[in-house]
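Lab notebook, bench 4. We co-purified these components, and the gel suggests they stay together. Before we commit to crystallization screens, I want a quick structural picture of the whole thing.
Request: model the full complex, all chains together.
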Amino acid sequence: MNLRAAAQPNRLALRRMGIDTYQEPVLYMHGDCHVCRSEGFEAQSRVELALRDRTIVATLNVVTGEFLTPLQAGLSEAAWRLLGAREGDEATLRHPAPLESMGHVRAKVYGRRLTATAADAVVGDIAAGRYSDLQLAAFVTACAGDRLDMEETIALTRSMTNAGERMQWGAGMVMDKHCVGGLPGNRTTMLIVPVIAACGLRMPKTSSRAITSPAGTADTMETLAPVDLDVASIRRVVERTGGCIVWGGAVRLSPADDILIRVERPLDLDSQGQLVASILSKKAAAGATHVLIDMPVGPTAKVRSAQAAAVLARQLQEVGRALGLNVRVVQTDGLAPVGRGIGPALEARDVLAVLRRQPGAPAELERRAMGLAGAILEFAGAAAIGTGLETAMAVSRP
Amino acid sequence: MNLRAAAQPNRLALRRMGIDTYQEPVLYMHGDCHVCRSEGFEAQSRVELALRDRTIVATLNVVTGEFLTPLQAGLSEAAWRLLGAREGDEATLRHPAPLESMGHVRAKVYGRRLTATAADAVVGDIAAGRYSDLQLAAFVTACAGDRLDMEETIALTRSMTNAGERMQWGAGMVMDKHCVGGLPGNRTTMLIVPVIAACGLRMPKTSSRAITSPAGTADTMETLAPVDLDVASIRRVVERTGGCIVWGGAVRLSPADDILIRVERPLDLDSQGQLVASILSKKAAAGATHVLIDMPVGPTAKVRSAQAAAVLARQLQEVGRALGLNVRVVQTDGLAPVGRGIGPALEARDVLAVLRRQPGAPAELERRAMGLAGAILEFAGAAAIGTGLETAMAVSRP
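Here is the predicted assembly.
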């Protein structure tokens, strides 16, 4: 076979390289590849790959070693997954269209404001995977600190909400909760959701996996039940039981948020505006109408002082209002870890001990969870003001 | 052989992967590697590798494919080069020390000023290769626009100058020139250096290769002579002939600048302060005493208006003064390309045509080069004010 003759213009056989580059899609092409040469692709070029109905943009690494032929395009695990590639597939490769929304990022860097139009363009391109990690880092940095005012934060939140799937639950209230974080072992969600559902309210809860701590709620829940439910399964479970606890990463609710978070974490850049947009875009996309925010305050928690908590609470409420969300914030004690165990199995054991009313069950975990559940019940009008905790306790200890 | 028993703690055999990741060092380790497992390394972890007297920090990609064994550590081309690895080498792998200077970057993001101490710490770590591309992007973005004031720009320039090698030329003037850029084919350096050297002045000129255009001065010069000279060779050539035209990338003069530029370019973020620090740190590290800046001004050049040129010129002069450099700026016409050819060979032909006084030699290239050479001669006091051009012409057309 004449390899040159067999080569279609700009088409290459896909090869799964088995290289985990975390979430940035990477493309491997041989230095002698005819597509590299004809298109002028070099290491770090951004290349668009099209396969069936999907298109992704990947960063090019040029291979001179022997483990790739000039007629193959190797894909990192992330690229393979995003493109939905299968063995034997051939993709079309080309230069991506110029990333015009980076002009809005540069404008923000230079001190101009992020308009609604700009936020839509930037977030749309981010959700579509068109931003490289470098470009994501520039956007995150440009918005960091307190560089997003209220109007910009609302625009960003709205764009992030609209950039993925949105769940609709019909008329009536849909409850949600979120913990701002910073307290290991704070697994209240697994106690709150059953109480709220038992009171006849709906609570479709998506949670994250561990990133910097040994377990996220999704990891802990997974020791007891599957958590990678799709949107149809979430709907089925919630319609049957009133609640669910699933892994948010399995559904495309505010997908730009997941992409931004993976860049924000290694940079350790906390942006007030992006924090608010991150929390509320996920809730809005999940179809929540009422969101209770658990905000632990303490010297080692994410929020360090009552004053900082008040500022953040006001932002969350104002942005929520703009998006049609009722937001209530509860400041909680952020001094110490909660529960006895750290890690998925031990945290699940703590949760089960509370639910089963075992002797030695961690009282502080129960107290926090029931306090928050009670606040949600009062928020929804399902318990009179001042009686939420009592109602929650009664439901959980029948 | 028992592979587990053979494995030394945290030591792995290096393997050159033949993967070009441009300049970011990447490390490939098998998912089953005992070092990955015992140290908790995951995809995107930053890992320190030590070999003989060198230490680098690389970004980890985890391999599950068959082309790497659990006892091997694969290196990208950049990592292989930076570590000075040879076939058969075994490196020690460990967690890098926490990158404390990122605290200064975050402080700058949050609006605080870049102090001299902060600049030294950040630039030192950048030059040592301790910053990931994400972290570099955050630093570049934090300084972009006009976010560096004069004092911060001076601190950054001084740190960049001190972070690599510095050439010393003894008493007397050492001339240098720089073009701010934006004009294709503007190959004046190859005409200016011989004229200045012929007038008895020293001019050790380092130039860049092409990055966004088809040729840099180093590429064009390389069609006629080797350009990858080390510091000792540069000294020998300049002591013998008065001048040289070499590739700046072969010497460690302001190495942080090269690293920052590779991130600035794809982001297309122009920072006035970083531009000034970039230009002047290279010149100061090369031992220049007098720097003439060719600043083309025009609607498609890097500097768009006479007003912008005046602001930039004042910054260059003030920062130069703080570093002990005499800086003079000449505004030139930035309307159109210079010379006839674009690309190394054709541009070299234009230069030779001028030097040989061939009929049809590009007059505009000669006019610009001799104008700048004349300005340098007047700057050095080697020609009376108003006679520089005439002197340069006389020298080049004997």
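Residues 1-7 of chain B have pLDDT under 50 and may be disordered. Worth comparing against the SEC data before the next meeting. Residues 236 and 327 of chain B are 26 Å apart (CA to CA).
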